[in-house]
Amino acid sequence: MTALAAVVGLAVLREGAEVVLFLYGILAAGTSSGSLFLGGTLGLAAGAAFTALTYYGLISIPARHIFTITTVLIALLAAGMAAQAVQYLDAAGLINVLSGQLWDSSPWLPQDGIVGRILHALIGYTDRPTELQLITYLAILAVMAALTWVAAPARRTHARTV
Questions:
Q1: Could you give the CA distance from residue 61 to residue 43 in angstroms, rounded to a whole number?
Q2: 112-159 pLDDT tens trace
Q3: 101 three-class SS
Q4: What is the largest distance, in Å, between two alpha-carbon atoms of the chain?
């Protein structure tokens, strides 16, 4: 508990120092102190409201649902990172197998657009994936699903006695 409290305390201290530096930079740039105070107060209120909404929202959701969703998101993130690694290795010329382009979805969902960038960061979206990228993506998802299934505690079945 002491180590956890120290980590949380250091994280809060670091964030607080960043806020002070940002606000000082804004003040040094010539912004009036009234505008700075109003902006800081509104930011603090918005942060507190978002924190309260997040807290009460997460409390109302059963923990098993939260862990299921985070497990799926982590698996998608890992698969996306592995597919990106394959793309980088192919671009560097270290992998020359299955490098044919499967499709081109850039006219509908470009990777450099806002939604494409968000999907690229979250799940490794690529608008022009290669065969090896897709195989890697699906293989990592399969491995993660298998490991999750193996690591899951055995569910007890209750036999009815009549």
A1: 27
A2: 999 999 999 888 899 999 999 999 999 999 999 999 889 887 666 665
A3: strand
A4: 81
Q: Which of 70, 69, 95, 67 is nearest to 82 (CA)?
A: 95
30 Rama sector, left if φ>0, alpha if ψ -120 to 50, beta otherwise: left
Rg (CA), the chain: 23
pLDDT in tens, 2-60: 888 899 899 989 988 998 898 888 888 888 888 888 888 998 899 999 999 999 988 88
Query: What is the C-alpha end-to-end distance of the chain, expressed in Å?
Result: 48
Q: Is-contact 131 125, C-beta < 8 A?
A: no
Q: Write b or e for each residue in 10-22: b if 16 or more Cβ atoms lie within 10 A of its Cβ, otherwise e.
A: eeeeeeeeeeeee
pTM for the full predicted model: 0.62
Residue 130, helix vs strand vs coil: strand
